[in-house]
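Write out structure tokens for cellulase.
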Amino acid sequence: MIHNLNRLSGKTIAKHTFLAASIAALTACVGTGGESSSSEAVGVGNSSTAQTASSVPVVASSAPAVSSVATVSSAASVSSAPNASLTPAEQIAEFVASYQPPQSGTNGIFRVKNGKVIKNGQELPVRCGNWFGLEGQHEASGEAPMELYIGNMWWDDTGRTMENDMTEIKGLGFNTIRLPIAPQTLVKGHPDGQGYRDINAPADLKGQNLKNIYSAYPYADAYDAMIGFLETAESENVNVMIDIHSCSNYVGWRAGRLDAQPPWVDANRGDDYEFTREGYSCGPAGAGITVHAYNEAKWLADIETIAKLAMDHPNVIGIDIFNEPWDYTWDQWATLAEKAYKVIEQHNPNLLIFVQGISGGNRVNDEEPHGEMATNPNWGENFYGFMNRPLDIPQDRLVISPHTYGPAVYQQAHFMNLDKDPTCEGLHGEEAANHGSGCDMIMEYDRLKPGWEEHFGFLRDLGYATVIGEWGGNRYWPTGGGARQSEAEAWSHLTNGPGEANIDFQWQRQFAKYLKEEDIESCYWGINPESSDTGGVFEHGYARDGKSWGLWDGVDNVKMNMLRDVWGM
């Protein structure tokens, strides 16, 4: 497909006409059960170590609202409300045909042109993966050490180093890494990023937090490790997107907003789950809760810090300003994103701003507009509000960066096979698994694509660079290695599909097809395998038999072949 910055081609118009017909057919088949009347239907994002997707309802919060929404003054960013008499797909087609995105017209190391990232004037094909750890890991003991995984979940000496891992990752074809961090990662000398248990570490660096072997990971703290990562990546000509992954290393993936507060979505998870974080908050909280206070001012200061340090590291492609902001309305989040862009532009005009979407609901509003109810967005996936309230950020500086996942992360209602059992309509998660003999799932491209188009794909057609910030999954789910026992049992009735692929990998293949068809780039979650709901590009053993669990094995060539096909390699 040809994506033109200034006008739609006839092919693009035809595409959106087809989308309207596809969604109408999907709605007739699936109904409006993609999101229940409860916030429980809000899809969740990916998690690392022992955090996995939860079907626990999101409950009302007393968290203070974000600062009042600023008036958008740029004429380019003002859009009249979509015609309510039109279907969502027809509204999108009308918007795409008429909207003219703003441009900065400035020069810098990184820019966007014709929907593609440009580096020093040349198109940069973004072949990206996530490598996490520095944002803080959640352990059953209550610790949250900020330390990069380089070879083993329990940091045994595997002979691996950051340097040789980076070389191997580059050799696989990756040229960009999304690096999650927390606000605490940016604090020089923060105790959660210090303290080797290795007896061979220097006396002044010994402590109780870090588990990597000092000789393989010789950093005084998490900040130094982050700088070392940027330098190592630069030596391999690998670009880095720095992702502010949470409001605190102790809250992690749960946050959803800058001043996030408990209860968290995994508060009541069973399965002998030991990784809850009800004792930590980023906003005002009651007695007995440790508050790592975070707010808009601190967040903008962190963005300034990252922008300034990136001046010394020209391989930093941009800042992913906050991970999966599911607990905002689109209007609130758009206002914050615009403030972040102004800080980046002021302090480092070479960088791009990566902006994620919201979700299908938040703690206050059960339902955020996201198009047809038949398809519910993941945390970070929903850009549907852009039509009513476009981002006042120049198109040549902005990267749209949604997240989306299959059933290994969350079993959405629109995955269910209603042809087989119509009574599964609107069911998701445990409710669907336990319904009768268990709802079946079906991963058909024509059922999945309309949701992706409504949630973010239409912006690609407007010429916006689109780089999926996270997607992936455990290709063995639910009956193979790595699935939680309760999920493996609940979904054991699922049968393999074409090519004997388990159901999550069927979803991954369909999304890979979409990326290739629409010429959309992405960051796969994850490169390292310590994510309990997705695994990684590197494989590892799943038997919990001590420290051998989590040991990096060889590369998962099935996943890599899929990625190389998307990359055109």
